[in-house]
Design a protein that fits this description.
This protein is of the alpha/beta class. The protein has ten helices and eight strands. It binds 6-hydroxymethylpterin-diphosphate (HH2). 6-hydroxymethylpterin-diphosphate binds next to strand 1 and strand 5.
Length: 269
């Protein structure tokens, strides 16, 4: 058993930034989910709405149609894998939970839908990820500014943690995520990655999503997100050293191998 968890990304969308359209068909999505699990993902994050910068919102009925059958079928075929729903809508989260999801990945940190905190609170077996985002996906990259990005993200996450507790969600089922690429310029992302220890110091498990993101394309010159695997892995290994133990990734096998090595080195005396 390794001491880290890999959350495989399964976007059932036509427009996600790196795999949009690839798993839009339900059967293809299930096949890809099985592959993510086979490669070592202990969690699979099913999303029906892209959060890439500039993405258009998706209606509730369509998001349900994309995600619910995939979760139901993966639950049937993968009883030991944690299924996560990547949504900001309580109705979509509710249907996903009924279909077998036990993790809610809400990029608004429970601020997007007033019904979301109570929904998560009323399911004690469900974990939730609270992520930092400045603005909303459609506009979040319009010149974001921070005086102290690490301090501001940490403070936001601390406040959202308290708000979740007040809503009745106990801290032992809350993960925090600095939200790499969500309303942040490249220098903000790099500062956050440099100081992840300060997010870990908040005392909650940290989930990190750097996989294939545009910042890595800018640094390496790799335009095709699928060519950013090595760059993605390097961020995960460095984050592991800072105490991050959960990683939201597209390329599970590569991250598994690299993080197993990182874990073995960290355990050496
Ligand atoms: N990143 C994306 C989506 N959801 N959730 C968390 N907790 N953390 C992240 O960093 C994160 C996330 C964006 O990546 P992707 O799902 O590949 O693309 P898209 O939003 O275009 O579907």
């Amino acid at each position: 058993m390794s001491d880290f968890a890999l959350m495989g990304v399964l976007n059932v969308t036509p427009d996600s930034f790196s795999d949009g359209g690839q798993w839009f068909d339900g059967e293809a999505a299930v096949r890809h989910g099985l592959r993510l699990a086979h490669e070592g993902a202990s969690m699979i994050d099913v999303g029906g709405e892209s959060t890439r910068p500039g993405a258009e919102p998706v209606g509730e009925a369509e998001e349900l149609r994309r995600t619910e059958p995939v979760i139901r079928e993966l639950r049937r075929q993968l009883p030991d894998v944690t299924l996560s729903i990547d949504t900001t809508k309580a109705s979509v989260a509710q249907a996903a939970i009924e279909a077998g999801a036990t993790y809610v990945n809400d990029v608004t940190a429970l601020r997007g839908d007033p019904a979301m905190p109570a929904l998560v609170a009323s399911h004690p077996a469900v974990r939730v990820c609270l992520m930092h985002m400045r603005g909303e996906p459609r506009t979040m990259q319009d010149a974001p500014r921070y005086d102290d990005v690490v301090g501001e993200v940490a403070e936001f996450l601390r406040e959202r943690l308290i708000a979740a507790e007040v809503a009745g969600i106990s801290p032992d089922r809350i993960d925090l995520d600095p939200g790499i690429g969500f309303g942040k310029r490249i220098e903000h992302n790099l500062q956050l990655l440099h100081h992840l220890d300060r997010i870990v110091a908040l005392g909650q498990p940290v989930l990190l999503g750097t996989s294939r993101k545009s910042m890595l394309g800018r640094i390496t010159g790799r335009e095709d997100p699928a060519d950013r695997v090595h760059a993605s892995v390097s961020t995960a290994v460095l984050a592991y050293r800072d105490g991050v133990r959960a990683f939201r990734v597209h390329d599970v096998a590569a991250h598994r191998d690299a993080l197993l090595v990182a874990e073995a080195i960290a355990a050496a005396r």
